[in-house]
Design a protein that fits this description.
With about 290 residues, this protein is of the alpha+beta class. It has nine helices and ten strands.
């Protein structure tokens, strides 16, 4: 990349709450979730080019054209033909840190960053609201990453409402040596699972500054994924032994996070799990 290339961070996310609700006619599920970005993630650079190309995406998808970065640029170009010529290109360079198949939203964050970079570099002048429909076509988490911070998510995750910033925990994230296939994970959910989203949403707005409140958080995927994946169960138990406020799965997994009030305890936990994880870090909430 040249010195004139523009670079942006692609933060990861965790789900502070995730309830899977009814199945929709289109086969997807409605959900209620509390999204929160964390300050660990990838970096995406871009500069104008004669075609759409991606460096640094090797091994993530079968080919660069299958990567969400390229898909995002193509879809944006096709969605606004009156603003961008069909032959306009972009060269992207991706510095990948977040693991794939981890429930941290790495690919979705990359896609949102690609939309924002193309919008600026191509000088399209689109607002975030105008980018939202394009983002939703790329994936359920992509709209959230256009904003970042803390948001309630409903629908399939694309209906967003700003939420108060949570208590400023230190977050330990660990991704064990396994991968969870999201479609399969939905089939493992308890059919008698609780429906508490509306209550949780109301409680969160009232108690978001009270660190004790975060003990009520839950994720419908947590118990079934711990049952099916010994690596997730063992990692969750090891992290919980350090006394965090809460230890929970993010998304459908495989990443587990723990919330600590003390940075020292978070560092101790990270040191204990690092060797058995394909990714691990201590992170802070990002806005």
């Amino acid at each position: 990349m040249s010195a004139s290339a523009e670079t942006v961070p692609c933060f990861g996310k965790i789900n502070l709450f995730l309830e899977i609700r009814d199945r929709r006619p289109d086969g997807y599920h409605n959900l209620g979730t509390l999204f929160q970005t964390v300050d660990c993630g990838d970096r995406l650079s871009a500069e104008p080019a004669d075609s759409l190309t991606l460096a640094g995406g090797d091994g993530i998808t079968a080919s660069p054209e299958d990567n969400l970065v390229i898909k995002a640029a193509k879809l944006l170009r096709a969605s606004f033909p009156e603003r961008v010529r069909a032959d306009m290109g972009m060269h992207f360079s991706l510095a990948k840190i977040l693991p794939t198949g981890a429930g941290l939203g790495g690919g979705s964050s990359n896609a949102a960053a690609a939309l924002q970079l193309c919008n600026r570099i191509w000088k399209l002048g689109l607002t975030e609201q105008e980018l939202l429909p394009v983002a939703a076509k790329l994936g359920a988490d992509v709209p959230f990453f256009l904003f970042g911070g803390c948001y309630f998510g409903e629908g399939i995750g694309e209906k967003l409402q700003a939420a108060p910033d949570p208590y400023p925990f230190h977050i330990v994230i660990g991704t064990p040596q396994c991968r969870v296939e999201t479609g399969w994970a939905y089939g493992q959910l308890d059919p008698k699972r609780k429906q508490e989203w509306a209550r949780f949403k109301a409680l969160y707005v009232t108690y978001f500054e009270d660190w004790e409140f975060y003990q009520v958080m839950r994720n419908d995927f947590d118990a079934p994924m711990r049952k099916h994946f010994p690596q997730i169960d063992a990692l969750s138990g090891k992290m919980h032994a350090f006394g965090p406020i809460k230890t929970l799965l993010s998304g459908s997994g495989a990443s587990v996070f723990s919330l600590f009030r003390e940075r020292g305890k978070a560092e101790e936990c990270l040191a204990a799990i690092k060797a058995e994880c394909r990714f691990s870090c201590v992170a802070e909430f990002a806005s």
